[in-house]
Here is the input.
Amino acid sequence: MREIDATWMRGGTSKCWVFRRDDLDIPDLSVDDVLLRLYGSPDHRQVDGVGGGTSTTSKAVILAPSTDPDVDVEYTFAQVGIEEAKVDWGSNCGNCSAVVAPFAIREGWVPAGQHETSVRVLNTNTRQLIVQRVPTPGGRLDEAASEHIPGVPFAGAPVRMGFVDPAGRSTGHLFPTGRERDRLSDAVGGVTVTLVDAGAPVVAVRAADVGVRGDEETGALDATPGLLARLDAVRREAGVLMGLADSPEAVARAVPKLALVSDVASDDGPETDLTVRMLSMGRFHPAVPVTGSVALTLAAGAAGTVVHDLVAPTGPVAGLRLATPAGCVSTFVEDHDDVPVVGVVRTYRRLASGSVLLPDPPLLPSAPATASA
Here is the structure.
């Protein structure tokens, strides 16, 4: 039995275990092996591990101080499989990104400023630089719960996150096919999509083209006969077109993400620009992935995309107000030295600090998990 230091944190609308990179270096085991056993996978309940049993709570954040003078912290994100013995390293989680700056300041990797501290974070999955700003009055990290965000019932400490020049971090191009829209094959319904890479690779599909309004509750969408299977087929064919895999079967479960978009919005809610329902690990996300909101924001500013058609901006896009299942999520667009920065404000909270226990092998379950409560 081995004890591994860990901190349990909420970042945005996700929860993740935060590890120092060196602490996961276990002799004779890969990091994948270590994470799967710690989280209790494969098992839909993750009953013998620290995983939360959902896509938004089975995540790991792995951190180390950087030796690059232009970067403060290197951050690697892991989406830990639940029913599959697989760790997906193919993308970033924007919500979990919110924990990086406060963790680094508490560790002493970044000195706190007198009013606010800026932390330059490099996500190693996508080579994306994220500038995070957190309040540090009097040179001390302020973790007071002063900000609310949609999808979290309690207030948290704020983090302003800007994704620096986010286009093409996974594929090399904002529009990986060189086109603002593509028509997929008849095998997946011949739908017209926008394939955009910013923050994360995203497939944007008009909700009406797959037979739904686009403002339904996530549970209703999950239960719509055949919808999840069809959208996964769309996502996988799009992943091949984006150059993320050689075949639909080889496309990762976490990327590309898929967004159903529409101009439907509630009359009694805040004014919004776009209604979005996004998939996360095969199910609809309870709010919206931050990286997905970055991609949709840049797609909205490009004429010819399915997002632009719905938003119909009359000038440059300064941000996007997204109607999500949890409420309105707003993005911002800034220009720093002629470099675009797209971002959001998230919140975080430390939930627990201590150690997690890695049992001795075997690493795979001795019996199949059952559906018992």
About this structure: The two ends are 27 Å apart (CA to CA). The helical segments are 31-39, 94-97, 100-107, 218-223, 227-241, 290-300, 306-311. Residues 2-166+347-358 form a domain with the Diaminopimelate Epimerase; Chain A, domain 1 fold (CATH 3.10.310.10).
